[in-house]
Amino acid sequence: MSYSGGRILLSSQRQGQVSRFRAWVMVAVPLAAILFQVYVPLFFQFLSFLEMPLLVVVYFALMRRSQISGLLVGAAVGLAQDSLSKNPLGMFGITDTLVGYFAASVGVRLDVDRAFMRFLLSFFFFVFHQSFYWVMERALLGHQPAFEMQRWAVLGLLNALVGASLYHFLDKLRDRA
Amino acid sequence: MESFLNRYRNITVLLLVIFAQLILLAVQVKNDQDVRIIRLWTVTAVTPFARVVEGLRSGSLGLVRNYILLHKADADNRRLQSEVDRLKLENITLKNQLNQSDRAQALQLFQARTPSRTLAASVIGTGAGSSSKMVFVDRGTVAGVMRGMAVVTPDGIVGKVIAAYPTASQVLLITDQDFAAGVISPKGVRGTLKGLGTPLCKVDYVAFEEKVEPGEWFYTSGDDRIFPRGFPVGVVKSVRPDQPYKEIYVAPSGMQRGTEDVLILLEPVHQDVPGTPIASQPVFIAPPPPDSGGKAADVPAAAPAGAAGTEADKLRGVYKAAGEAQGLTVDGHTFAVGSGPKEAYSKLPDFTKLSQPGAAGGRGAGTGQGQAPPVGPVKPASPSAAPGTPAPPAKVPAATPPPGARPGPAAGRASQPGGGPPGGIPR
Q1: In terms of domains, do B148 and B58 share one?
Q2: So where are chain A's domains?
Q3: Distance, C-alpha B313 to centroid of its chain
Q4: Residue B22 belongs to domain spanning
Q5: CB–CB of B191/B218 below 8 Å?
Q6: Is this complex's ipTM strictly greater than 0.85?
Q7: How many domains does chain B have?
Q8: Confidence category of residue A79, pLDDT binned at 50, 70, 90
Q9: Which residue of chain A has the CA closest to B163?
Q10: Best of B18, B27, B194 to disrupt the A interface by mutation (most A CBs within 10 Å)?
Q11: Residue B401: pLDDT above 50?
């Protein structure tokens, strides 16, 4: 990939390299993320703030740079999350679908190989995820959840920190062929 | 058309996927039914991994904690400490086993003690979502678990099964905002326990005039048909007066020692709520005042003739007038006043010849005037005696309560098992 003077905006879509992953990576990583969220907070309560499935959706959407691929990964992971929650199916599904779509759209335009850019995008999509889920809960389910923007911002920063590190590790699983 | 779809392919797919999920969501919300097959697939796919991970964790935890870490810490004098390490390893492993067996023993004891049929289960996962208050347990429909069953620990209730799959079940914890259960205090105060999404729960719908104190326990009332009556729920942490219902916050007792191992109530059996006051408690009656000399008749005798009586007094006057009209002395009657010579009646008055109120003559029993006769003899410490009433001595007719005096509520309760109302009119 060629950078033009360290700019974060790509001058053309061709500059953005599409990352490819093996099939087992595309299955195992989201599954591990869901398993992490289901299992790890049992013993480490303080880790329950981590939205691993969301971070994985953002990563695959950014790196694949394909909007359809991003939204399908988001829909699959979101529906799996819904299945393991008490909410009706579709709440996480719709939210993660939108996150996947928008992340892929951003990935086409921005140089997402930079750690700082990944940090910013992870933070933004976490806050977007929480806000949109809040809207859906009010609009579609008629619930009255609390609007906790400050809490989301803090959790977004923590998730972004973890996300930036996680993406560095996931880069090693990219298909180099 | 084809070029249009190609040009807007991405947004078209996005709209289709979103629309499909919206339809899915709408169907569930409208019919209040779940699309079970999708959940079944996901749970069946995820829970085996959770079981494997849990097995690996529990199996290797002792090794990691008790050998590798110690091994690393004692690297300098490994040779000299090897024997100590080995003993420590054995010791800690045995302690872990003892701890586990303690927990298992507590569950077994509880299972043996409770009349309900229970099924032990281990928690193998939590719900997805950072604010989730639900867990997965490793027992499902194969083991007989059904949706709606109660989940408890020896310390109290934990939650209820909201979905049962073949190998696992989903349990909604009592701290979840959607959780509710009927509760009752030992004083009989009823309410509805609601989760708040925090470690504390709220007891709602308790009227502000009810008396609930911090430190008081709440138990399941059995009204919700999920939890059997008499299981501990939690202890009251704070009570705030509010209209129309009190704000009562309760610390759940069932989750205080963690929720690694739980019991699912397959066949719940109702139990008594501990500490509930018995309806027929004995009532203490103080001895008579020393200056009365055991003559309880002094008190009613001093009552003014014109004092207004109750309806019961008027009725009693009618009976008394009937007895006098038939030539039977009042003092000899069982409801007579005074401590004079007790001459038992050879026969009872004929109460079929009662005068009409107002026509009884004499002291106008029907008008509410005249001295009210006392009630019949009452044994001391009898449950029919009202608190606050001067206590009669043994075998002495009870003193008439002062005008306007009414028996307290305890008297009503206490009188029930005695068979007769307090201070009943003699037959």
Answers
A1: no
A2: 17-171
A3: 42
A4: 2-31
A5: yes
A6: no
A7: 3
A8: very high
A9: A86
A10: B18
A11: no
Give the SS3 label for residue B313.
Answer: helix
Rounded to an integer, what distance in angstroms lies between the CA atom of residue B382 and that of residue B407?
Answer: 14
Tokens 């509010």, located at residue:
B242
Are residue B72 and residue B187 in the same domain, yes or no?
no
Torsional class of B293: left (φ above 0), alpha (ψ -120 to 50), beta (otherwise): left
When the pLDDT of each residue in chain B is averaged and rounded to a whole number, the result is: 71
Per residue in B151-205, pLDDT (tens digit) is 998 889 999 999 999 889 999 999 998 899 999 998 889 999 999 888 899 999 9
Average pLDDT over residues B404-427: 36
Same domain, B155 and B219: yes
Q: Which of A111-120, B102-111, B287-296, B314-323 has the lowest mean pLDDT?
A: B287-296
Q: Which residues of B touch A109 (CB under 8 A)?
A: none
Same domain, residue pair B106 and B162: no
Q: Does B17 touch chain A (CB under 8 A)?
A: yes
Are B207 and B232 in the same domain? yes
User: Which of B95, B113, B131 is the last residue in one of the domains?
Assistant: B113
Which range has the top average pLDDT, B97-106, B110-119, B145-154? B145-154
Contacts of B129 in chain A (CB under 8 A): 37, 81, 85, 87, 92
Strands (E), B30-133: 117-126
Under a CB-based contact definition with an 8 Å cutoff, are residues A152 and A124 in contact? no
Flag the least confident range among A162-166, B66-70, B166-170: B66-70
Distance CA B43, CA B124 (A): 12
Which residues of B fall within a CB distance of 8 Å from A68? 9-10, 13
pLDDT band at A10 (very low <50, low <70, confident <90, very high): low
**DSSP per residue, B7-18:** HTHHHHHHHHHH
Q: Are B221 and B269 in contact (CB under 8 A)?
A: no
B145 to chain A nearest CA, in Å?
18
Judgement on whether residues B57 and B104 belong to the same structural domain of the protein: yes
Does the structure show a pLDDT above 50 at B418?
Answer: no
Do B148 and B80 share a structural domain?
no
Question: Do B89 and B168 have their domain in common?
Answer: no
